[in-house]
From TrEMBL:
InterPro entries in alphabetical order: ArsR-like_HTH, HTH_ArsR_DNA-bd_dom, Metal_resp_trans_reg, WH-like_DNA-bd_sf, WH_DNA-bd_sf
UniProt keyword terms in alphabetical order: DNA-binding, Transcription, Transcription regulation
Alphabetical list of SMART domains matching this protein: HTH_ARSR
CDD domains found in the cross-reference section: HTH_ARSR
Gene3D superfamilies, per the entry: Winged helix-like DNA-binding domain superfamily/Winged helix DNA-binding domain
Pfam families: HTH_5 (PF01022)
PANTHER family, per the entry: ARSENICAL RESISTANCE OPERON REPRESSOR ARSR-RELATED (PTHR43132), HTH-TYPE TRANSCRIPTIONAL REPRESSOR CZRA (PTHR43132:SF6)
UniProt-recorded name of the protein: HTH arsR-type domain-containing protein
Keyword DNA-binding carried by entry: yes
Length: 103
């Protein structure tokens, strides 16, 4: 990204870092299963891994793996309720992907 022609502006280090973070977030949801998890959690819903795996019709371990990746990227977070972890969307702007795709 650092090559420049006469009419282009260089990105600042902060802009490059923000673009890298955005690209990593997009990569984190660039999968139908991960998008499905985000879809189930939209509208402020909180769900356990068990509820998500039932809602997706997938193996609980697979859903846990995908949740961990999105949590590491700051897309999801969780709160403890009794013995359950309830997952929710931490980075609300990620929902704009559905608007962009008119879903």
């Amino acid at each position: 990204m650092s090559e420049q022609t006469n009419h282009e502006e260089l990105l600042t280090a902060e802009q490059e870092a923000n673009l890298e973070k955005a690209a990593n977030m997009i990569k984190s949801i660039a999968n139908p299963i991960r998008l499905g998890i985000v879809w189930l959690l939209k509208d402020g819903k909180e769900m356990s891994v068990s509820e998500l795996h039932k809602g997706m019709g997938l193996d609980q371990g697979m859903v846990s793996h995908y949740i961990a990746r999105m949590k590491a990227q700051g897309i999801l977070n969780c709160r403890k309720e009794g013995k359950k972890n309830l997952y929710y969307i931490e980075h609300k702007k990620i929902l704009n992907v559905f608007k962009c795709m008119k879903i």
